[in-house]
From TrEMBL, chain A:
<feature type="domain" description="Thioredoxin">
    <location>
        <begin position="29"/>
        <end position="210"/>
    </location>
</feature>
<keyword id="KW-0560">Oxidoreductase</keyword>
<dbReference type="InterPro" id="IPR036249">
    <property type="entry name" value="Thioredoxin-like_sf"/>
</dbReference>
<dbReference type="InterPro" id="IPR001853">
    <property type="entry name" value="DSBA-like_thioredoxin_dom"/>
</dbReference>
<keyword id="KW-0676">Redox-active center</keyword>
<dbReference type="InterPro" id="IPR006311">
    <property type="entry name" value="TAT_signal"/>
</dbReference>
<protein>
    <submittedName>
        <fullName>DsbA family protein</fullName>
    </submittedName>
</protein>
<keyword id="KW-1015">Disulfide bond</keyword>
<dbReference type="Pfam" id="PF01323">
    <property type="entry name" value="DSBA"/>
</dbReference>
<keyword id="KW-0732">Signal</keyword>
<dbReference type="InterPro" id="IPR013766">
    <property type="entry name" value="Thioredoxin_domain"/>
</dbReference>
Length: 212, 605
């Protein structure tokens, strides 16, 4: 009986795996409802989106994240280390502020840092904080990293249309993809809710590379 | 919707790498992770509680409520668990159910909350609008730009964050089923169980008017006759009463089986084997009507009945006869009974199912009670006319058999059977007899009718030879050869799982959701018949057409059927542009073109 049930579960799981893999590819390649022709390219290669890792990398890793999301931040060092070690991964950190005011401010300031060339440093500083942040925490963290939050804010305001447009697209894509929250990863064409540990991250990148 | 695909992907992925150590499972839907319950208190306050699932937590600081004028309401929140770790920082969270009170709201209150799956994901902010009476307002349509607040002046949106949860809902194929569907649900909703029972009793009375009860008359008559001279009206009534109650009890058992079996019953009733057996019973009944043999209970039962001289013995025997008779009548009334049984199966209520079918059996037995009370002498005297009536019923039984068999036999074979039946009846009516010059008007009318039947039979035969499928249009292959092409031109997207259904429904509304299976013979009839009607095909063009294939009657298929509140194939659910099933549009079982067109019209754009 037990054996029978297990066999049943296993075959059901296998079936589910096969159909879902097909389904994901289809769901990602198909324009989701309510968005105007959203394609996988729009998600992976948004022209306004800063790119980390190797911009010419053969696999793109996308993370929808929030600067106050504990699991995004806990897994961040693993993610950065793996991207660094791999050397051939395009990393796209998509700002999806879901934790309110301080998160929105953090995203605005870090995107404002793109112009000054301090995007990487600003993001790294904020991702290394504990989850809960006030707006003052955001500013003081950046200052402690030797950055100027006021200048970042000015730069953001300068290019406000671009950055607001980018964040707007991010949240629309999150909704279209049916994401429930952060973190959510897209590796190749597979979507993973939650933060994978380094081994799973490496395996997912390898799988994406294999199927490409 | 798609979320679940991805979650499944995660599961699959985890299985593949074998790294499933301390990973949290796929995150639940936020509504399932934090189950919101609102209880209005007599004082006018609203008791709001979240049942936080194990492995999930709510942020104390993210629980908020807004008055209708937008001001934030002061809430008394219980102390949470103080959480202090390098990543989360210092925060208060609830890992266990948490309850708050909203004091006497003066209008719709907006409730906000947010939480996470431990070591998994943090959900986007959730919100709900609570009406004063404690109901949760249905989700409103997503505003065109849910992030308008970002473009507002001031760099930081002061709201509790973008309404990402609204955006989330838009991505789901929200599907609202019409409520109160179905006979039992309707009756139960209006007047409770009593009305259900009365309804089934009436249904039984109607069934007693069908020839199906006829085979029971000689059984009852024989039973009463064997009582000899000592038969009084009271005794006769008692005997037939026992007979009818036993028969009703047999039907009651059927109700119990139906309620227990759930939707599986439909699968059984629709199986080619069951239909074959039932068709065979009809043929047997017909042959009995034609006088080939007298339908009787086994000699042993009859002997037992005769032996019992005391009241008890006879009543017991009558009961045995009644129970046995139900086995004969049961298959005969299958077609109408199946519908009733499916509704019973849908309720899953064993007591109600048994009682309803018992009532149906009683209703069916009422005419027999009359025979019992007044004795067999109230039955019409046997004569030539009686034989004709019996032969007429025999023809009806044969027609029923062909109609049933039509679901499992190839179309041309069915046409051939009709051809044989029609031609045979025509000849029996004297179509080919030479009319004497002084033939009566009755004879001439019969011959004329017979000629028409022979003609109709010939057409069926020609249709069969041409490979026609539809007895109602035997010359269709000749008249327009496009019919079949049209039937093929209404393609359905086939799904077999919940996720696939949701994905298929996403943005594809209005839609027809058609629950079908390979073993569902009624479905074949529908597809061959009304669904290939050019008018229906044209109307269906406006709808997204989704076929839920439950051929593999596995857990997944049953889950989908449960979601759709479908008892079994064929069930057609019509969903309007808003993702809501149109009231009263659902079609269950055999349908015709008019039903289909009416239901389509309810949801078509």
């Amino acid at each position: 009986m037990t054996l029978h049930r297990r066999a049943l579960l296993a075959s059901a799981g296998l079936g589910a795996a096969l159909t879902t893999l097909g389904g994901i590819t289809w769901a990602l390649l198909r324009p989701p409802a309510g968005t105007d022709d959203l394609t996988i390219e729009d998600v992976l290669f948004d022209p306004d989106q800063p790119v980390l890792g190797n911009p010419q990398g053969d696999v793109t890793v996308v993370e929808f994240f929030d600067y106050q999301c504990p699991f995004c931040k806990r897994g961040h060092s693993d993610l950065m280390a793996e991207v660094e070690a791999d050397g051939n991964v395009r990393l796209v950190m998509k700002d999806w502020p879901i934790f309110g005011g301080a998160s929105v401010l953090a995203s605005q300031l870090v995107l404002g840092a793109v112009e000054e060339g301090t995007y990487v440093a600003a993001q790294a500083a904020l991702m290394a904080t504990p989850a809960r942040l006030s707006e003052d925490d955001v500013r003081s963290t950046l200052m402690a990293a030797g950055l100027d939050p006021a200048a970042m804010l000015a730069a953001y305001r300068q290019d406000r249309e671009r950055w607001d447009g980018l964040m707007d697209r991010n949240s629309r894509q999150a909704a279209a993809l049916g994401l429930q929250g952060t973190p959510a990863f897209i590796i190749g064409q597979t979507l993973l809710p939650g933060a994978p540990d380094r081994d799973r991250l490496r395996a997912a990148i390898a799988a994406a590379r294999g199927s490409a | 919707m798609m979320i679940r695909i991805f979650l499944a992907a995660l599961t699959a992925w985890t299985m593949g790498t074998g790294a499933a150590l301390a990973e949290p499972g796929p995150p639940l839907d936020p509504a399932e992770a934090f189950v919101l319950t609102i209880t209005p208190a007599p004082s006018g306050d609203l008791q709001v509680s979240w049942n936080v699932q194990p492995g999930y937590y709510l942020y104390r600081s993210k629980i908020a409520a807004e008055a209708p004028n937008g001001t934030s309401l002061p809430l008394t929140l219980p102390d949470g668990e103080v959480y202090d770790d390098p990543w989360l920082g210092r925060d208060e969270i609830y890992r266990t159910p948490v309850a708050i009170t909203i004091p006497d709201p003066q209008g719709p209150t907006v409730l906000h909350w947010q939480g996470c799956q431990q070591d998994g994901i943090c959900y986007a902010p959730q919100q709900a609008v609570l009406e004063v009476d404690g109901t949760i307002r249905a989700e409103e349509a997503v505003e065109d730009d849910p992030f308008g607040s970002w473009q507002a002046d001031g760099d930081v949106a002061q709201s509790s964050g973008p309404s990402a949860d609204d955006a989330n809902t838009s991505a789901r194929a929200g599907l609202t089923l019409a409520e109160g569907e179905g006979l039992v649900a309707d009756l139960a909703g209006r007047g409770g169980a009593l009305l259900v029972l009365l309804g089934f009793f009436g249904f039984g009375l109607l069934l007693s008017l069908t020839p199906c009860v006829l085979p029971m008359v000689p059984i009852v008559a024989g039973m009463l006759t064997r009582q000899g001279q000592g038969l009084t009206a009271g005794r006769g009534l008692a005997l037939t009463g026992a007979y009818v109650i036993a028969m009703a009890a047999a039907f009651g058992l059927l109700g119990i089986v139906a309620a227990w079996s759930g939707a599986n019953l439909q699968a059984v009733l629709q199986s080619p084997a069951a239909i074959g057996v039932i068709a065979a019973v009809f043929v047997m009944l017909a042959l009995s009507m034609f006088g080939l043999f007298e339908l009787q209970m086994p000699a042993a039962w009859q002997a037992r009945l005769s032996r019992g001289t005391g009241a008890t013995g006879s009543l017991g025997g009558a009961a045995v006869l009644g129970f046995g008779s139900a086995l004969i009548v049961g298959p005969c009334v299958t077609a109408p009974l199946a519908g009733a049984l499916i509704y019973i199966a849908q309720t899953g209520d064993v007591a109600l199912g048994a009682a309803a079918l018992f009532a149906l059996g009683l209703g069916q037995g009422v005419p027999l009670l009359a025979v019992g009370a007044f004795g067999p002498q109230i039955l019409p005297r046997r004569g030539a006319w009686m034989e004709r009536v019996k032969i007429g019923f025999g023809v009806v039984f044969i027609a029923m058999a062909i109609w049933l068999a039509g679901r499992i036999l190839p179309g041309p074979v069915v046409l051939l059977l009709w051809s044989v039946l029609l031609t045979g009846c025509g000849v029996a009516l004297g179509a080919l007899d030479r009319l004497a010059p002084d033939a009566s008007r009755t004879v001439r009318a019969a011959a004329g009718t017979g000629l028409l039947l022979v003609f109709a039979g010939l057409i069926q035969g020609i249709g069969a030879a041409m490979g026609a499928d539809d007895p109602a249009r035997p010359l269709a292959p000749l008249a327009d050869r496009k019919t079949q092409a049209v039937a093929e031109a209404v393609p359905f997207q086939t799904v077999t799982s919940q996720t696939a259904l949701e994905t298929a429904l996403d943005g594809a509304q209005p839609a027809l959701i058609y629950v079908t299976a390979d073993w569902c013979v009624t479905c074949r009839a529908i597809e061959r018949g009304p669904m290939s009607d050019p008018h229906v095909a044209a109307a269906l063009g406006d709808l997204a057409r989704i076929k839920v294939d439950v051929t593999d009657f596995n857990a997944e298929a049953q889950a989908v059927m449960k979601t759709l509140a479908a008892a079994g194939p064929p069930t057609m659910i019509f969903v309007d542009a808003a993702g809501t099933e149109a009231q009263g549009s659902r079609l269950i079982g055999d349908v015709d073109s008019a039903d289909l067109l009416a239901s389509i019209a309810q949801v078509a754009p």
